[in-house]
Design goal:
This protein has 409 residues and is α+β, with helices and mostly antiparallel strands. Strand 3 and strand 4 form a beta hairpin.
Amino acid sequence: MAIIKCPECGHEISDKAPFCPSCGVAIAGKVVECPKCGKVYFSELSECPQCHYKRPVADKTPIVENDNAVNTQETEKTTEAEIVKPKEVNEPKKVYNEQPVGANNPEEASDESLKTPRNSSRNNKIIIGAVVAIVAVVIGIGCYFYYSIQSDKELQAYNYAMASNDPQVLQSYLDQYSDAPEAHLDSIQSHLDLIKKTQQDWTNVMISNSKSALEDYIAQHPDSPYKAIAIHKIDSIDWQTAQQQNTVEALELYIEQHSDGEHVEDANQMINSLNSKTIQPEERLMVNSIYGGFLKSLGDKDEEALTSFVNPLLTNFLGKTNATRSDVVTFMHKIYKSDVKSMAWKSLGDYTINKKNVGANQYEYSVAFSAIQTIVGQDDNATEVRYKITSTLNNEGRISDFNMIRLAE
């Protein structure tokens, strides 16, 4: 068995292979080898396609034959007249007998002996080529995996840098992966430039310490890592302003602007404290209305109106503890003596009011003021008496304590 090249595709195969595994052409019994140049070609050709050596007409014996073919060929002989010498080869004439290829043909045996070194050299070339091919494949695979790993590392570093706001991380990527894809390098550089500008703008804002500058910074850099700090500083500036003004209106404005602010609880406490100390105009109006109505109903002897202004149970009424509304009505009738024709009570409006917080937005008022009692006798003579009244209004707006002292003339 020898290794030959397929005449059709050049693929190296065994000369005993029935077909070429590469192109499928028939091989065994269908090819011959030129005795001059060693070229393997199809036996149906009359001459070598490489050196144009013409085989004897009857010599169509294939390289691979069975025993029956050899026995048949031994019965056939060729004459010297049938021998054709190749045109291209200038050699002495030789006489070829029409004999089958094999041990019975001396010339063929000689040719086979000559082909052995050539086949050995061809085999060596095949082995060397195969080794070179394997080495190239191994190197190629190694290079592929190396560059694949390097590419994966670069991509991971790129994604990490793009998600970072640290200039050192971005600069490190640019230094380490200078041969990265241009799109990656441009994106990282743009990101780095934006962060540097953001930091410079933040430095300028910190120097100014201005609320408007902080608000502009947040508007221009909504994703800045300093956004939370800027919001905190704005909150602090507005809280400081509310504290300095120390009014209910200023504190309520702070809460409105910073519903989730850091000082909302403090603001509410200050509002409660101020409200407990500061009498608002509407509160003063309420006090005047209640005591004015009480005194008027006292002068009119209107029991229903009078009792509507007092609590069902008073802690103190003109020195009597736990007084009831009936005690108040009794007092009204007591001051109307037989010689009294009419009576009128009037507040002088000099109210001194103190507030006390007794619950959520609920207050108790301690009130002190002056009042004049005008008495008209049966003789139509009028007499005025001045009193100093101290009283308490509960969180429901009813009198819960009432005392008065007659002032000297």
